[in-house]
């Protein structure tokens, strides 16, 4: 069987990881990368014995699958170009920066029978724990996702940059949209939110999300309260406590998925393209739902989603 030819758009931190994951998969030939920063693209290509392309169109002409790891404001247009060219696409979060473009991506992938996946890989941590199959739904969720300023993804709000992970997890745990959203936010580096706190009222549940990209240190925690107890998780240390009766996997961080959720996300994307798996970890429809919710949170805060 011939190998899937893979490419990466973006030679930054996430682009480098995706390039490595493609290079390590025996089913894939990592063909190359396009990044407007030609020197950075050359360095990444040389690392894997691949090619640095002069444009996205030139890259698309040589590949079957594409990871989009560019700044978020380019996700939608790049994914549209790739799908129109008949390529399977894995987009780092968010799927796009507006609902109309996200919906076009979902429809285009459906009509062309192409795999469209998104990089909400924190969901795999919950999967490795066994939390996604818990017999109860939480009544309260509290998430904190903070870190120092890096300048990465500064073209969008911290909601689209960081909070989207926790919004996706909440939608998975509660399996419904919120009935009410309130939010307060502050910008320090531009006109979009750099710090935001959102309160979402679901029918029978409440969720509080706090995100900052100008914090003193990194923090990634979630607490989910259930009728029978609560689960606390630290995404950075992979430590968690569980007072419910759910048979969660205490050694989830030692599993293949729990130890490398991004790698597992890439692997299942390839599985879906090859027909080995019925779907990617996060499909276009689910990513679109998260995008819509994130944009609603920004609107509730009164600050724009795009810089």
How would you characterize the overall build of this protein?
- The protein is of the alpha/beta class.
- 36% of the residues lie in helices and 24% in strands.
- The protein has 10 helices and 13 strands.
- The protein has helices at residues 13-24, 38-47, 56-60, 75-84, 99-112, 122-129, 158-174, 256-259, 261-274, 284-301, and strands at residues 4-9, 28-34, 51-52, 65-68, 88-91, 116-118, 140-146, 180-186, 195-202, 205-212, 219-226, 229-234, 239-242.
- Helix 2 links the parallel strand 2 and strand 3 (51-52).
- The longest helix has 18 residues, at 284-301.
- The chain starts with a strand and ends in a 6-residue tail after the last helix.
Strand and helix layout:
Layout: E1 4-9, H1 13-24, E2 28-34, H2 38-47, E3 51-52, H3 56-60, E4 65-68, H4 75-84, E5 88-91, H5 99-112, E6 116-118, H6 122-129, E7 140-146, H7 158-174, E8 180-186, E9 195-202, E10 205-212, E11 219-226, E12 229-234, E13 239-242, H8 256-259, H9 261-274, H10 284-301
Parallel strand pairs: 1-2, 1-4, 2-3, 4-5, 5-6, 7-10
Antiparallel strand pairs: 7-11, 8-9, 9-10, 11-12, 12-13
Helix pairs in contact: 4-5, 5-10, 6-9, 7-10
């Amino acid at each position: 069987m011939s190998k899937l030819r893979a490419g990466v758009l973006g030679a930054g931190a996430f682009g480098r990881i995706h390039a490595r994951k493609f290079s390590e998969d025996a089913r894939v030939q990592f063909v190359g990368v396009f990044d407007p920063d030609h020197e950075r693209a050359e360095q990444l290509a040389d690392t894997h014995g691949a090619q640095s392309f002069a444009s996205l169109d030139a890259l698309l002409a040589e590949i079957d699958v594409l990871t989009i790891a560019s700044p978020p404001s380019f996700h939608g247009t790049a994914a549209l170009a790739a799908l129109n060219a008949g390529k399977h696409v894995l987009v780092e979060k968010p799927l796009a920066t507006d609902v109309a473009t996200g919906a076009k991506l979902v429809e285009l992938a459906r009509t062309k029978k192409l795999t469209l996946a998104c990089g909400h890989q924190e969901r795999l941590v919950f999967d490795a724990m066994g939390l996604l199959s818990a017999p109860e739904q939480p009544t309260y969720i509290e998430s904190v996702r903070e870190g120092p300023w890096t300048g990465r993804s500064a073209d969008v709000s911290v909601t689209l940059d960081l909070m989207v992970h926790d919004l996706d997890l909440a939608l998975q745990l509660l399996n419904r949209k919120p009935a009410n959203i309130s939010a307060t936010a502050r910008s320090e580096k531009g006109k979009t939110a750099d710090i935001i706190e959102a309160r979402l009222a679901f029918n029978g549940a409440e969720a509080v999300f706090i995100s900052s990209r100008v914090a003193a240190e990194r923090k990634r925690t979630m607490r989910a309260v259930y009728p029978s107890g609560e689960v606390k998780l630290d995404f950075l240390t992979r430590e968690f406590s569980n007072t419910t009766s759910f048979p969660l996997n205490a050694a989830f961080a030692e599993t293949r998925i729990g130890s490398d959720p991004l790698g597992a996300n890439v692997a299942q994307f390839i599985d879906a393209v090859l027909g080995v798996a019925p779907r990617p970890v996060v499909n276009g429809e689910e990513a679109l739902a998260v995008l819509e919710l994130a944009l609603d949170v920004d609107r509730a805060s009164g600050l724009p989603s795009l810089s």
